[in-house]
Amino acid sequence: MRFPIILASAAAFSLAACSNGPTDSAGNGQSASQPQLRISDKALEDQVMAALEDAPRHGLTKDLFLNAGLPTDRGQRREALLAIAHDYASALAMGRVDPARVRDVYTVPRPKVDVAAGLVQALQNKHYRDWVNSLAPQTAEYRALSNAFVKLVQRSPDLPDGGIPSGKTILRGASDPRIPAIAANLKELGYLPAELASGTRYTPAIAQAVARFQADSGQKPDGVLGAATLEALNSSPRDRARGLAVAMERLRWLDRSPPATRIDVNTGGSFLDYYRDGRHVDRRKVINGEPGWETPQLGAPIFQLVANPTWTVPDSIAAQELAGKSGAWLASNDFSRKNGKWVQGSGPKNSLGIVKFDMKDDEAIYLHDTPAKPLFALDDRHRSHGCVRVENAIQFAHMLARADGIDDEFSKAMASGKETFVDLNRDIPVRLLYHTAWLGDDGRIHFAQDVYGWDNDVAAALGYAKVSRPGARQKAADVGP
Q: pLDDT class for 31, splitting at 50, 70, 90?
């Protein structure tokens, strides 16, 4: 059964809207214009408690909403149940956490749902449980994350909880006393058949399982058991479940009907997806902000392509990256001072490459090309100063230009060798998202390390423990944005 999602109205939720009695002259109770909820205390409690049984499907727990339990006083108990019913519905419709409260910048469009209006109808018709579950994202990705979370929680008593000692890298064919623990972990995670998980030799079968695990964990799938792979394998079931719960929460933050033509950039996994007319048409690698220069979570459109861009260096980057450069280096890379700013001229050495995707946002963040092409071969592509560098950016720009009917104009601009601005006929919405667990196009759940440490605040608000962040990471090797 499908239930309508009601867009937010000006009316705010009030417990009085779900009371049994009429409003008096002081404004207490039910107003004449508000729908009455006529339902017994038992029917109300049965519906709410039954719905909360589904909370683990969403990476949540009943305790988040029940807190210390329900009051014994009848009136207070009813009001508490109504508040819980509203809070739980809001959590599934829009997220338990307000992303703007855990991050300084969050401008990605969010769902607008009038939970109060739908709540009265759902409770009155005794379909609250089905209605509230319909408020969560109804996508294949959300279902996959939910199924993986439930399966992991159900199997967690049987899953290894760390215990693989650190040590030297293990290569194919080597023997190592850690292999049984590694094989047991891979077996329980579903990467290795049980009959192949024996002995202390690092066999080809185990190496293949390791490579699949590495691919799902955002690592190079080379089958080499190095420190990063051992650390990921040592991740406890609680850690993996926590990551899935955070991922579901971030999906609940998102508009359920995003623009059919858009670009979604996952700065956790460092890749972008391009959708046109509701169809996924392209995925490619990106390089985005390193820790300390994190790419913010933004919703903003691309409105023009810039062929052969110049780059006016922000003062913060100039102070940190250009201050120690020699005059000869600055000259050879075409940097000069203009109006008190460092400006880099157009050309193959320009830090923006030879195409820029201008966006309308207050953070001066945009997509662009780069001369530092080897960085796209890295597993960890958090190497920029906040902007997003696109793999094969010229090809991607032509793809957008053709779809917009301006490819001839853009091609002429590129051939000019001069900075030229080419307006799009239609803006292309872009969402910069930070997701550390997602459904891959191979149908498997993929994980990335929480390099920004942003999972912690979300996880804490969902009732999960904070975990330590990865150690110091390599800084960007170039001065680009």
A: very low
Looking at the predicted structure, is the pLDDT value of residue 372 above 70?
Answer: yes
Which residues in 172-278 belong to E strands, given as ranges?
Answer: 262-266, 271-276
Q: What is the mean pLDDT of residues 445-451?
A: 90
Give the angle 117-133-464 at the CA atoms, nearest 5°.
110
Tell me the two tokens of residue 389.
Answer: 């560098």
Q: Which residues contact 134 (CB under 8 A, 6 or more apart)?
A: 2, 3, 5
In the DSSP assignment, the letter for residue 38 is -
Burial 178-198 (b: 16+ CB within 10 A, else e): bbebbbbbbbbbebbeeebbe
CATH code 1.10.101.10 for 160-235: yes
In whole angstroms, what is the distance from residue 112 CA to residue 314 CA? 36
**Per-residue pLDDT at 37:** 77
Listed in sequence order, the DSSP H helices in 9-127 are 41-52, 63-66, 74-94, 99-102, 115-124
Cβ-based neighbour number of residue 39 at 10 Å? 19
| Number of other CB atoms surrounding residue 4 within 10 Å | 10
Cβ-contact 29, 17 below 8 angstroms: no
- With 0-12 / 13-18 / 19 or more C-beta atoms within 10 angstroms meaning exposed / middle / buried, residue 295 is buried
Residues 6+ apart with CB under 8 A from 4: 118
Largest distance between two CA atoms of the chain: 83
> From 2.30.30.60, 3.30.70.890, 2.40.440.10, 2.60.40.1880, which CATH number describes the 258-310+345-461 domain?
2.40.440.10
DSSP annotation of 22 reads B
Query: Of all helices (H) and strands (E), which one includes residue 33?
Result: none
Tally DSSP H helices, then E strands, for the chain. 16, 14
Domains of the chain by residue range: 15-136, 160-235, 258-310+345-461
H-helix or E-strand spanning residue 237: helix 237-252
For residues 129 and 54, the answer to whether their CB atoms sit within 8 Å is: yes
- Which residues make Cβ contacts (< 8 Å) with residue 461, sequence separation at least 6? 96, 97, 102
C-alpha closest to that of 88 among 79, 99, 96, 80: 96
**Which residue from 10, 12, 253 is spatially nearest to 119, judged by alpha carbons?**
12
**In the predicted structure, residue 30 carries a pLDDT above the cut 70:** no
Q: What's the pTM? A: 0.85
Q: Are strands 388-390 and 367-368 parallel, antiparallel or unpaired?
A: parallel
Q: Sort 300 into a burial class: Cβ within 10 Å, 0-12 / 13-18 / 19+.
A: buried
**In the 8-state DSSP scheme, what is residue 175?**
B
